[in-house]
From TrEMBL, chain A:
Subunit composition and interactions: Component of ORC, a complex composed of at least 6 subunits: ORC1, ORC2, ORC3, ORC4, ORC5 and ORC6. ORC is regulated in a cell-cycle dependent manner. It is sequentially assembled at the exit from anaphase of mitosis and disassembled as cells enter S phase.
Record protein name field: Origin recognition complex subunit 5
Alphabetized InterPro entries for the sequence: AAA_16 (IPR041664), ORC5 (IPR020796), ORC5_C (IPR047088), ORC5_lid (IPR048866), P-loop_NTPase (IPR027417)
Entry keyword annotation includes Amino-acid biosynthesis: no
Residue ranges of domain ORC5 lid in the record: 205-272
Protein source organism: Gallus gallus
Compartments it resides in: Nucleus
Residues of the Orc1-like AAA ATPase domain: 21-156
Listed GO CC annotations: nucleus; origin recognition complex
GO biological process: DNA replication
One of the Pfam families matching this protein, by short name: ORC5_lid
Function: Component of the origin recognition complex (ORC) that binds origins of replication. DNA-binding is ATP-dependent. The specific DNA sequences that define origins of replication have not been identified yet. ORC is required to assemble the pre-replication complex necessary to initiate DNA replication.
TrEMBL record, chain B:
Protein name listed in UniProt: Origin recognition complex subunit 3
Alphabetized UniProt keyword annotations: DNA replication, DNA-binding, Nucleus, Phosphoprotein
Subcellular location: Nucleus
Gene encoding the protein: ORC3
Residue intervals of the Origin recognition complex subunit 3 N-terminal domain: 1-345
Domain Origin recognition complex subunit 3 winged helix C-terminal: 598-710
A single GO BP: regulation of DNA replication
Known function: Component of the origin recognition complex (ORC) that binds origins of replication. DNA-binding is ATP-dependent. The specific DNA sequences that define origins of replication have not been identified yet. ORC is required to assemble the pre-replication complex necessary to initiate DNA replication. Binds histone H3 and H4 trimethylation marks H3K9me3, H3K27me3 and H4K20me3.
Lineage: Eukaryota, Metazoa, Chordata, Craniata, Vertebrata
Length: 436, 713
């Protein structure tokens, strides 16, 4: 029983379309009815939104490609980072449509005015979020393109965020809004199982997908990513079958074999700790995972001696209140208990509030008191501060005049600074107000 | 043009003059600055050739060090796209999403060295892999638009360079108007590869260097400095087109690869296929450089302990930059040849001997003035003394001999130093340092055998076990055999003898029936009383026990090593004529390399005499002289103020100081009204201080300025 019905298109095409867009039948039929028949004027603009990989781009592409009668242009807004590029891209694609034999020279088109003048039909803008950052007139103008050009044109905007975030202050033509809901686990199962490898039966593959979803569904609902993971790990799943240790029906045995493997994949490949090609090589060589360390295993950073102290000083300056400097860095500070000089708002941990900016002088003062031997304020020390900034370990706050006493923030984590402090035998915890 | 400066400011770039003129002027400056003109031409030439030698040597070392890393990268590039080309039809390849192959290249925090690495990397890639390389820097790419422009510019230029034919000229012109989009890039890539494919035998050589469809390599030199948005956009855009042309990214990372995850969200990093490559750590790098450059007899110039310490300290404490270390060494070379007239003799032995013969009388006097030479003269008999001090020819003869001695000393010094390092580097806690450079410094500083550390390391060496000792001796033999020194045959013989003795000992052990050792007895005892008793007995026996054969031998070996050290590792400044080949003015080097701008500024303003050298400014310290420049007076007065300075008070103090000299002559009229000229001078001094960054106008209080610096540095 075909779900899609439309007077303008032959039922064979519709059937074909239906098989290509599983689980999105209702949206497609809605779109088809909006487009109407060739001679009918369709809705000027449609806004489609939905989560990452909920099939927006794919559905639109297959829909427009399968139904040959819909001339269209498909543009990715990330790729066309200026309005000029965007408009020219559209025009070039249109030209290719109308005259495929000769490659027309690109038409220079700088403003929307020129565009309207040159514009001759459906137009799909993918990743439409980017439009918001272009000139103010682009988005409203696209929305009323039909009106401006006086032609039967529909502008379709695809986006991952809702329409409310788009609506400009000045008001504009409201598009027809269509929501693509997330695929459910059943949908995912159905879609993923559809594309099974030719060597194996569909049932076998679908059992595999079932296991895969069981492991990954909790963390990842991205169809593309799941497909990728399925392809990566399938050979491992087949292994017992290839080695004739298990039959295709032996689901339980296969599950026992694959499950720990998938869990490992979740911690490594999925997080891009190790790359997929490395993962594949590991599978082939049957090597242990220990051989290739993930990216985060290399968190250690080697720094010159004074850079380490500068960083420690910066950390202390960022997380200790100024008033406490006296207590930490003066020799005869007397006995001040934490409770005595703690103000009410300081009861919350400074580590929860994040780093606070501090002036250069305070940084140097703390540096002088935590380094054992005398440090001369040489050019090398100052340039080290700058290089810590370029390494993103410190950041400059407020980009004003350099002479005006620059202020910095320390951006490293507690674990990182503790590792650094350990290498120079400096007990940083003793100097932190939060851990007093 | 780029500037390296601590502060912001205007920089004037004069057009560089013609090359010929430059070379003339360096020689000219070299001559002009030196205190006396002895042999300055020759010194300059020697200096130049030595510089060149050092440069080529260090470059070669660096190439060798990077070789492994580059090989890995090239094989990664080879792998990255071949898989897809080979089995396009396979099921896994169709379903798997195509990721952009990405190499995360962790290079360490010594950012100044990266330039060289990237330059040689792109050279290697250009020679072996692909002509299409783009190097991107964060400062050129504040937005995706600039990035694409830069990328297209570099790629399209390089394609023209490969062909270097005349018909491409018009492309240059139109490049600025090319649409900077990925489509353009893809079209360009298609046409470029097609062109190289269609090129027939005539140009086969150039194209065969590269692979069938050469990948486009985009290198991000400083990953940390790129903004998140630019990177994300670029990755997203290029992942759309990854099927159409082979793109490979290389991220240059200074800190840790974690930065990728903090810069790119999961949705973007999942488009990448990241593999990690780590370069050699810069400390190892430095060790190699020191080992190959400083601890050889290859270069006549040597560094004294203090100078070496300055260079190493700058490296370890400040920048980790090997390039800067080499630059420092080169500065030492220039400084040595520039300041020391006798450095003309600092060259290979044969050449030096020849040069000795042609020394002028003045130079001979210079030699006589050397402290080490004076010591030498004093140790001679009186007739010889007179001859050395008065007759140039006998002096020259002596100098030739002494230079030869010095050369022999160096030839022996380094191998023995390495032998000693073999021993000390395996001792627990490393009393003489882990690295050979520390040992070298210790030996240069003073007689190493008189130090406590040496004593304790000998003691530790006397406790080494046999297998360690044997391997060390073997290593020493290897070092000595491979070194060119003349006197080592005997030493090698002796060491080999030790080795055979150890061998015999071992055989003897095996033959001997082992009685139950006291240790084993110990295990048998269960009674506490008995245990105590045996322990006491053990202690007694140990005290009185005769040394075993092995222990005797061990003592002998250590004593022998000790004698070698005493004989060969004499500090260089005990050697006559060491001034000629050792550069030892560490203070000059420190001044040049570890500049202290704040201190210099403070000295200039606080004590103008130190720079102006005018007698009138010589002051006894505390008081403020009115002869000093206005800015100095204003500066000294401001040092006495708090965070906010009242301008009126300051002006008053200023005018008091300035008019102090006139003192009695000043009339009453000026006392309540400040002179206009003084007022103007004050304002000028204050604005000069503001320009230097000592004060800034403050909005907190009217007629006040805020101090920006604290303390006397």
């Amino acid at each position: 029983m075909p779900i899609l019905e439309h007077p303008a298109y032959p039922p064979a095409t519709l059937l074909c379309l239906e098989s290509l867009v599983p689980c999105r039948e209702s949206q497609v039929s809605m779109l088809l009815s909006i487009f109407g028949e060739r001679q009918q004027l369709s809705f000027p603009s449609i806004f489609i939104y939905g989560h990452t990989s909920s099939g927006k781009t794919y559905v639109m592409k297959t829909l427009l490609n399968t139904l040959q009668q819909l001339p269209h242009v498909f543009v990715n807004c990330v790729e066309c980072f200026t309005s000029r590029l965007l408009l020219e891209e559209i025009l070039i694609q249109l030209q290719n449509h109308s005259s495929e034999t000769r490659r027309a020279s690109p038409v220079p088109c700088d403003t929307f005015n020129d565009f309207v003048r040159l514009f001759k039909q459906a137009l799909v803008l993918d990743r439409a979020e980017q439009l918001r950052e272009m000139e103010a007139n682009i988005l409203p103008a696209f929305l009323r393109l039909q009106e401006l050009t006086d032609r039967n044109v529909t502008v379709i905007l695809l986006s991952e965020i809702v329409w409310e975030m788009f609506r400009p202050n000045t008001g504009c033509f409201e598009p027809f809004i269509l929501y693509f809901p997330d695929y459910s686990i059943g949908h995912l199962q159905k879609i993923l199982s559809q594309n099974h490898p030719p060597e194996y039966s569909a049932d076998f593959y679908s059992a595999y997908i079932n296991i895969l979803l069981g492991v990954f569904y909790m963390v990842c609902r991205d169809l593309k990513e799941l497909q990728h993971l399925a392809a990566l790990n399938f050979s491992k799943y087949c292994e017992p079958v290839v080695r004739k240790e298990a039959k295709e029906r032996d689901t339980r045995k296969l599950w026992k074999n694959i499950e720990p493997h998938l869990k490992k994949a979740m911690q490594t490949v999925y997080l891009r700790e190790i790359s997929s090609s490395q993962w594949e090589r590991l599978q082939c060589e049957e090597g242990e995972l220990g051989q290739i360390k993930g990216l985060s295993a290399h968190a250690h950073v080697e720094l010159p001696y004074y850079s380490k102290f500068l960083l420690i000083a910066a950390y202390l300056a960022s997380y200790n209140p100024v008033r406490t400097d006296k207590r930490f860095f003066l020799k005869h500070h007397g006995k001040i208990k934490k409770t005595n000089f703690m103000k009410k708002h300081e009861k919350t941990s400074n580590h929860l509030l994040g780093p606070k900016p501090f002036p250069l002088d305070r940084l140097l003062a703390i540096l002088y008191s935590i380094v054992d031997n005398r440090v001369a304020p040489t050019a090398n020390i100052f340039s080290q501060i700058t290089s810590l900034v370029t390494l993103q370990l410190l950041s400059v706050v407020g980009n004003n005049d350099q002479l005006d006493g620059p202020r910095y923030k320390c951006t490293v984590s507690l674990d990182f600074i503790r590792a650094i402090a350990r290498t120079v035998n400096f007990d940083i915890i003793k100097y932190l107000y939060d851990f007093l | 043009m780029s500037t390296r400066s601590l502060s912001k400011g205007c920089f004037v770039f004069k057009p560089s003059p013609k090359k010929r003129k430059v070379s003339r002027t360096t020689a000219y400056y070299f001559r002009e600055g030196s205190s006396d003109l002895e042999d300055s031409e020759l010194r300059f030439a020697t200096c130049q050739s030595l510089q060149k030698q050092v440069k080529s040597e260090t470059e070669q070392i660096e190439e060798e060090l990077n070789e492994q890393l580059f090989d890995n990268l090239v094989s990664f590039l080879r792998r990255s796209h071949s898989a897809f080309q080979e089995k396009k039809t396979e099921w896994t390849c169709r379903t798997k999403s195509r990721e952009i192959p990405t190499a995360a290249l962790v290079l360490g925090v010594n950012v100044t060295d990266h330039d060289f690495t990237f330059r040689s990397l792109s050279e290697v890639l250009q020679n072996n892999v692909t002509p299409y390389i783009a190097l991107l820097e964060a400062k050129d790419c504040p937005g995706i638009k600039n990035l694409m422009q830069k990328l297209l510019g570099q790629l399209m230029n390089c394609c023209i360079d490969v062909d270097s034919s005349e018909e491409e000229d018009y492309e240059h012109v139109s490049r600025s108007r090319v649409r900077c989009s990925m489509t353009t890039l893809i079209n360009w890539y298609e046409s470029a590869t097609k062109r190289t494919d269609s090129e027939t035998p005539g140009k086969k050589r150039t194209s065969s260097r590269h692979w069938q469809s050469p990948p486009v390599v985009v290198i991000f030199k400083d990953m940390e400095s790129f903004t998140t948005k630019v990177l994300q956009d670029f990755v997203v855009i290029s992942s759309q087109h990854i099927g159409e042309f082979p793109l490979v990214l290389i991220f240059g990372i200074a800190t840790s690869p974690m930065i990728i995850h903090s810069l790119l969200p999961h949705s973007v990093s999942s488009l990448l296929c990241i593999e990690l490559f780590q370069s050699l750590s810069c400390k190892d790098h430095l060790s190699t450089i020191i080992d190959k450059i400083l601890l050889t007899t290859q270069f006549p110039l040597k560094l004294s302990e203090k100078v070496l310490q300055v260079l190493i300290n700058i490296f370890l404490y400040h920048d980790f930059s090997v390039q800067n270390f080499i630059k420092g060494f080169q500065l030492c070379i220039v400084e040595h040849f520039h300041s020391n007239p006798l450095s003309v003799l600092c060259c290979q032995l044969e050449e030096a001997k020849r040069r000795v013969n042609s020394l002028s009388h003045n130079q001979c006097e210079n030699v006589r003035r050397l402290p080490s030479f004076r010591r030498y003269v004093e140790s001679q008999v009186s007739e010889k003394q007179i001859a050395l001090l008065t007759v140039d020819s006998s002096l020259k003869e002596a100098v030739q001999k002494l230079l030869e001695d010095l050369n022999v000393y160096h030839e022996n010094y380094f191998p023995i130093l390495r032998c000693l390092h073999v021993f000390t580097s395996s001792l627990p806690k490393y009393p003489l340092g882990k690295q050979i450079r520390e040992l070298h410094c210790a030996c240069l500083e003073n007689r190493v055998w008189e130090t406590e550390e040496y004593e304790s390391s000998l003691q530790l060496a006397r406790m080494l076990n046999k297998s360690d000792l044997v391997t060390m001796l073997q290593k020493c033999v290897e070092i000595l055999v491979s070194s060119p020194g003349r006197e080592f045959d005997e030493i090698v013989e002796k060491l080999k003898e030790f080795l055979t003795q150890f061998q015999k000992l071992e055989e003897a052990y095996q033959e001997r029936d082992e009685s139950i050792s006291p240790q084993k007895e110990l295990q048998k005892k269960t009674n506490l009383y008995h245990l105590q008793k045996t322990l006491l007995e053990l202690k007694e026996s140990r005290r009185s026990k005769k040394l075993t054969k092995f222990e005797m031998l061990r003592f002998e070996v250590v004593d022998y090593i000790d004698s070698l050290v005493r004989h060969y590792l004499v500090p260089a400044d005990h050697k006559t004529l060491h001034e000629i080949v050792y550069f030892n003015t560490a203070s000059v080097l420190r001044e040049h390399l570890n500049a202290a701008p704040r201190i210099a500024l403070h000295t200039a303003l606080n004590n103008p005499y130190s720079y102006l050298k005018s007698e009138a400014l010589k002051s006894d310290g505390g008081s403020i002289s009115n002869k000093a420049p206005d800015i100095c007076i204003a500066y000294k007065l401001h040092l006495e103020c708090g965070r906010l300075i009242n301008l009126a008070d300051w002006l008053e103090a200023f005018s008091t100081v300035v008019t102090a000299a006139e003192g009695p002559t000043a009339d009453a009229a000026s006392s309540d009204q400040v002179d206009d000229v003084i007022h103007a001078r004050f304002i000028r001094a204050v604005s000069e201080l503001e320009l230097l960054g000592f004060i800034k106008p403050s909005k907190q209080k009217t007629d006040h300025v805020a101090r920006l610096t604290w303390g006397g540095c």
